[in-house]
Amino acid sequence: STALPLRKRTQPVVITAPANLRITNGVNPGDLDLKVDGMKGASSFGFEYTEDPPTDASVWVKTICSTSRCTIKGLTAGKRYWFRTFVIGSKGQMVMGETLLSPYVQ
Questions:
Q1: Is the dihedral of CA 61, 65, 71, 74 positive or negative?
Q2: Residue 69, SS3?
Q3: Across residues 53-81, what is the average pLDDT?
Q4: In this predicted model, what pLDDT tens digit does every residue of 57-68 receive, in sequence order?
Q5: How far, in Å, CA of 38 to CA of 96, rounded?
Q6: Which of 47, 42, 51, 82 is nearest to 62 (CA)?
Q7: Based on the number of CB atoms within 10 Å of its own CB, is 33 exposed (0-12), middle (13-18) or buried (19 or more)?
C-alpha cells in the first residue's frame, strides 16, 4: 500500500427551504434589508416582492443574491411589500421558502 491518503467520497447535499426570513428598514430611505438563515449547498438566494395587497395580476420582482442577506433599494416610502424567498443549489435546483409582509418602508 502507499502512504497517500484515500480520497474521501463526496456526500450529496440536500438543500431545504430558506428559513427565518427577517425584513427590516435599511439605512437609506426606500431600502429594505432581508435576511434568511444560511445553509450548506446553496449557491445563491432569491427574493421576490410585490406591493401589498397581492392580487392575481400582481407582478413579482425577482432579485438574486450570492449570500443570505440582500438589500432591496428604490421602494416607495409608506408602502408595504410581500416578500417570498427561495434558495438555488449548486446543481441548479430551487426550493421555495416562506412569504412574509414587510414593515412600512421608511
A1: negative
A2: strand
A3: 97
A4: 999 999 999 999
A5: 14
A6: 47
A7: middle
Residue 91 amino acid letter: K
Residue 27: how many other CB atoms lie within 10 Å: 7
Does residue 89 surpass a pLDDT of 80? Answer: yes
Supply the pTM of this predicted model: 0.86
Torsion angle (degrees, nearest 10) of CA 60, 89, 31, 100: 60
* The residue type at 85: T
Query: Coil, strand, or helix at residue 48?
Result: strand
- Using DSSP's 3-state secondary structure scheme, residue 4 falls into coil
The average pLDDT across 20-47 equals 96
Residues 47 and 69: beta-carbon distance below 8 Å: no
